[in-house]
Amino acid sequence: MISRISFIAAAFCLLLAAPRPALAADAGDFDSLVDEAQGGYRAALFYARTGNAALAGIELRQAQAVWDEILAAYSTTPPPPYAKDSRFAADLKAITARISKGADLLDEEKGKEARRELAPVRDLIYGLRDRAGRKGYSECVTDLNRHMDFLFKWRHDRPDFTAPGTADTVMQAALKYRDILRACRAMAPAHYQKAADFKRIYDGADASISSMPQAVERKDALGVVNILRELRSFDRILFFKLG
């Protein structure tokens, strides 16, 4: 009797420990579709920023088709990690609405207005994944870009190294950026790591931010500004090409 109970208990434990491929695949399929749509979104933002509304519109219409598929498949049946998120359906609708409106604006060659309409999409996706515990490489790049925004305040308002604590604040911010950058590089998907520009962009950004501690130690405010100018370029292209 005892051995039978032990057998049943062991079998139950194995059942609990076994992977749940259907649920995992469902979440994975959702995330893959979002990543696919984000590729077109990033390309559209890049082309709109360079004034090429026609190419931006083509990329965004492709992204729109994927988002329409996502909305139809998941708005009422979220994948398990997202199922408890009360904002899931509303955020999906907000994203698709902004993508659609942005595409219409690009058709009218209103690139600046389209970029303004599309800007919140990235944060909406970040929020969805963050609340579901599904943050990945793209969210790491978002964290990196957000921290760049924090660092860049010293581009126009040079750090005053005569003020107590300024050097430590700038140093800590620079080291945090470097840590995020290296974390993103380590978790980048294989297809990004194989990209022709991957090593050049990541190496360039790393070399740039790694030169910041010396500038801070020298209390070289102009040196900090020049580093931030260079780093900003790497930071932007990293999002557009490898984000």
Structure description:
- The protein is built from twelve helices and no strands.
- It is 80% helix and 0% strand.
- Mean pLDDT is 90; it is low at 1-25.
- The radius of gyration is 22 Å and the shape is globular.
- The protein has helices at residues 2-17, 21-49, 53-74, 88-107, 111-132, 137-151, 153-156, 166-187, 190-193, 198-210, 212-217, 221-242.
- The chain has 243 residues and is mainly alpha-helical.
- The chain starts with a helix and ends with a helix.
- It has two domains: 25-134, Four Helix Bundle (Hemerythrin (Met), subunit A), CATH 1.20.120; 138-242, Four Helix Bundle (Hemerythrin (Met), subunit A), CATH 1.20.120.
- Helix 2 (21-49) packs antiparallel against helix 3 (53-74).
Question: Kindly, what is the distance between the CA atoms of the first and last residues, rounded to a whole number of angstroms?
Answer: 59 Å
How would a crystallographer describe the biggest sheet?
A: none
Q: How many discrete structural domains?
A: 2
CATH architecture of the largest domain: Up-down Bundle
Write a concise keyword list for the protein shown above.
243 residues; mainly alpha; Four Helix Bundle (Hemerythrin (Met), subunit A); 2 domains; 12 helices; globular
